[in-house]
Amino acid sequence: MLKLKYGIIELYKKVATSIPPDVEEALRKAAQTEEEGPGKETLNRILDDITHSRKECGPVCQDTGIPTFVVKVPQSINHKQLKEIIIEATREATKTIPLKPNAVDIITGKNSGDNTGRLFPVIYMEETEESHLTVDLLFKGFECEQLSRTYRLPDETIQAERNLEGVKRCIIDAVKKAEGKGCPPYSIGVGIGASRDQVVVISTKQLFRRCHELHPLEEIARIEQQALEEINSLGIGPLAQGGKTTAINVSIDYAHRHPDTYLVDVSISCWANRRGRLIWG
Predict the structure, then answer these.
(1) What 8-state DSSP symbol labels residue 35?
(2) CATH for 143-273?
């Protein structure tokens, strides 16, 4: 398990200092197709920053955000022990990389100084039949977290009914209300389901999906593509400088709902969408 701890520390370093290859590819394609102007110039500066961070092994962003894990665990591994390893790895990664400490006690207001605390970092665990352990890590930026929204359909204010067209209206509304904050172009995760806690987790997990990975269900994939096209027609552009690249992907998943509920959560991530994966065992 000691090797696993050091593997998670390296995962922290990777997520802090590099951009996922699919995200960088999507940004480069956007820069090629963006019209001349402030938006294109901004994308080119972002790409220069990515190259510089890779060469210098420096942080892509000074804010660590909220470290969020999704871990797929074989039956042979103890969940409690694994959480302890992740927490210890977080302490060491904060010190050695280093990372900005963000875990603040809500009672005392004191920062723990090592990105660990009560239910911090955020860890979701799922049992898997695979023989190997998969650890996905995402840094959720604080500003994007504030821009994320939950909707209850029907919603008369945005004329959204209980259907996929209504879901699309929620996504567009969330981007409009973000007003270009949170460093677009965005990656957007969407969860549909029965309860608030459920749809937030679903939408968060969509931020781990690759940029060009469409949902296997045709009806959902079509809404993903339509929502992305409509978002990019808003003219907000990279870092709100104008242009046709306001988002690089929209990823949606769903759960069955109660007859009287139809909840939609929209999670927004900045252009970096800092995430990475460790496969161990």
Answers:
(1) P
(2) 3.30.1330
